[in-house]
Design goal:
- By secondary structure, this protein is mostly helical.
- The protein folds into 2 domains: 1-116; 118-272, no CATH class.
- The longest helix is centred in the middle third of the chain and has 34 residues, at 125-158.
- The protein is globular, with a radius of gyration of 19 Å.
- It contains 10 helices and no strands.
- It has helices spanning 2-26, 29-57, 65-86, 92-109, 125-158, 164-168, 172-205, 213-235, 239-263, 267-271.
- Helix 3 (65-86) crosses helix 5.
């Protein structure tokens, strides 16, 4: 049942993406309204999918590759909607929906079978630690998308090519606000994710930190975003510098999220 709901939400995300892309070129208010409605419906159904998967599997579905990628896509959608609730960033939906659709497509091809959890994973720390971390990555992904849009718009302005992209992309100020918002929320979430992960490790393994590859790369990611936070809020970095570092930090965060389990072995991998 959960995979059927997943497939329907994937189709709705596809339709929302298509509508957002049409709006990007046509700029008709009715198309944008329909695109946003489709995205909200897709997100709502995706939320129901995760709940149904929980009852089917008997555990919080943030464990297998299919589940984590799906939850990451959900987190990005949640972060996007939370930002739109407070701010307006022109055509952000076209970029975000495309990324969400890509993640959902990857999740669709990942093994979907539920697993028997190891004793370490049968803990109340699992949903807390994993959801906080993935929500943080969702905000960082949104910051990275905003950084990419910032660089595109800045390049357009510098070359004085005031054509399609200049009129369609948000202002540099709006994109800088997006970066500020995502860092302000994402960094505390990642910090809490690391703290709860350490508490979980103490409970399960007897020590707060074991320099597992996932822990090491999470620390590297945290330090990168701590440096970005420091440069932005203390030194005064804004604009292009913040955009570039947001993109670079996102690459490292995605490697931590996905690549570490592929290229390294550690107790995080042995849990599942």
């Amino acid at each position: 049942m959960s995979f059927l709901l997943f497939q329907v939400s994937l189709i709705l995300y596809l339709l929302a993406t298509a509508a957002y892309l049409v709006f990007f070129f046509k700029e008709r208010a009715a198309i944008r309204k329909n695109a946003r409605l489709l995205f909200i419906l897709a997100f709502a159904l995706h939320s129901i999918t995760i709940i149904v998967r929980y009852f089917e599997a008997g555990y919080t579905p943030i464990t297998t590759r299919h589940e984590t990628i799906s939850f990451f896509a959900w987190s990005l959608g949640c972060c996007y909607l939370s930002f739109c609730w407070r701010y307006g960033v022109k055509n952000l939906g076209a970029f975000v929906s495309l990324l969400v659709l890509t993640l959902m497509s990857l999740a669709a091809f990942a093994p979907r079978a539920t697993v028997s959890l190891s004793p370490q994973l049968q803990s109340g720390w699992l949903p807390v630690h994993a959801s906080l971390s993935l929500l943080a990555y969702g905000f960082f992904a949104l910051a990275g998308v905003g950084g990419l849009m910032y660089l595109l718009q800045e390049r357009t302005i510098k070359r004085k090519r005031f054509g399609l992209f200049y009129s369609r992309l948000p202002s540099l100020e709006a994109l800088d606000t997006l970066n500020h918002h995502c860092l302000s929320v994402g960094f505390p979430l990642l910090t809490l994710g690391m703290i709860t992960g350490s508490l979980w490790a103490k409970q399960a393994l007897g020590s707060y930190w074991r320099w597992d590859p996932m822990e090491t790369w999470t620390l590297i990611t945290w330090l990168l975003y701590a440096a970005l936070i420091h440069q932005r809020f203390t030194v005064g970095w804004r604009g292009r510098q913040a955009a570039l570092l947001s993109i670079a930090a996102l690459v490292v965060a995605l490697f931590t999220f996905w690549g570490v389990s592929v290229f390294f072995t550690g107790y995080h991998g042995s849990f599942s």
